[in-house]
Amino acid sequence: MGRKCSCCEHPRRRELDKMLQEQVAASTVADIFQVSLSSTYRHSRAHRQQVVLVDTQLTDEFAPQDLLSRLVDLLEATTRLRRAAASSGDLGAAARLVGIERGVIRQLMADLGVDELSIATALEEGQQLAHALGTATSEDPRVGLKVARQLVQQGGAATLANALIDHAQQSALALQERAS
Questions:
Q1: Are residues 126 and 158 in the same domain?
Q2: Domains: count for the chain
Q3: Domain limits for position 70
Q4: Sign of dihedral through CA atoms 105, 111, 113, 115?
Q5: Statement to judge: residues 34 and 89 lie in one domain
Q6: How confident is the model over 48-79, as pLDDT tens digits?
Q7: d(Cα 103, Cα 164) in Å, to the nearest integer?
Q8: At what angle do helices 26-33 and 13-21 cross, to 10 degrees?
Q9: pTM of whole model > 0.90?
Q10: Are residues 69 and 19 in the same domain?
């Protein structure tokens, strides 16, 4: 009996097969899943029929019905794999995955009708708003506390609310020190 396919035996075979089906470069797949490039090529050629069959049998989590959901799932999987590659020190694979992530994000943006300029403008306006709020809170800590309270009451943005509270407390201490 011949050797077992290291890709077929891989504990994350579904993710590996999915990336091959999405036409991610075999070298990237090999790097991410730490299998040899020749095994990845052999698996892709010899088991391509099985890859397609496996995809049709995947759960809804891995086989969403519409393109947008598929792109979101691919983005999440790529992000997860990039972080794992970076944390394991495989910066080459992490860099390649950044490129894949960017491509998926661009496709998502195109499908949603969002252009990069509108996102850049929104981010710039958000930075300006944050700077203005920080300045106002430095001058009067009650401003930051009031905005933080509103954020909490509206639900969400807890991280921003906590940052504002911290900044307001630091500003209040600094104002007290200057006054004494």
A1: yes
A2: 3
A3: 64-114
A4: positive
A5: no
A6: 544 444 444 444 444 434 566 777 777 788 88
A7: 35
A8: 160
A9: no
A10: no
